[in-house]
User: Which sequence fits this backbone?
């Protein structure tokens, strides 16, 4: 049951992440996601069989946490009023949406902790809320890593001069390799951030 709950939380968290990209793009002049019907929380429009089901099951089974992704929401940078600023804001919208979710449920956990007497219902809710915070902090931190195809790379390249565009294209062509580098080598150094953020948001030890 906990595995299923974790995957459901992950699915809706990554959907909100992707929809946030599309909403920001639409606001900045690119209607691509809206015209393709992707600005919706309907899971059927976003589920990627590998990233939304298979990978979460594997990561939960072997790592104790569910991690994955949804189908990326498309956008056309040539429709943006200001391409560089637009790409930066669109990339930022996803991680910010996850941090806002984590903040909201972190504040709820802090409030729930003040309720006495503690009942089994309150404890169960706190556990679910904690899972929501962990998943969304994980998604935000992971996506802010400045390597393709993660949002952090788009943030990084959007502030660089145009002369580095060729380097960006080369790096993005090797996106699957960069993901492996992050997961196999870099994540062990980055992941300690997650308990620290969780503690700051909830006042609890992860």
Assistant:
């Amino acid at each position: 049951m906990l595995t299923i709950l974790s995957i459901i939380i992950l699915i809706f968290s990554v959907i909100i992440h992707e929809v946030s990209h599309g909403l920001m793009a639409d606001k900045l002049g690119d209607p691509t996601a809206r015209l393709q019907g992707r600005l919706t929380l309907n899971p059927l429009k976003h589920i990627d069989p590998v990233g939304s089901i298979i990978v979460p099951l594997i990561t939960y089974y072997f790592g104790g946490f569910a991690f994955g992704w949804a189908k990326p929401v498309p956008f056309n940078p040539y429709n943006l009023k200001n391409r560089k600023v637009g790409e930066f804001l669109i990339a930022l919208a996803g991680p910010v949406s996850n941090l806002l979710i984590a903040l909201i449920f972190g504040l709820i956990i802090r409030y729930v902790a003040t309720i006495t007497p503690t009942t089994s219902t309150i404890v169960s809710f706190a556990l679910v809320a904690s899972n929501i915070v962990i998943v969304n902090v994980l998604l935000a931190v992971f996506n802010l890593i400045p390597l393709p195809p993660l949002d952090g790379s788009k943030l990084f390249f959007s502030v660089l001069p145009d002369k580095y565009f060729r380097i960006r294209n080369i790096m993005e062509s090797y996106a699957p390799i960069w993901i492996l580098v992050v997961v196999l080598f870099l994540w062990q150094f980055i992941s300690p951030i997650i308990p620290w953020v969780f503690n700051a948001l909830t006042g609890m030890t992860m």
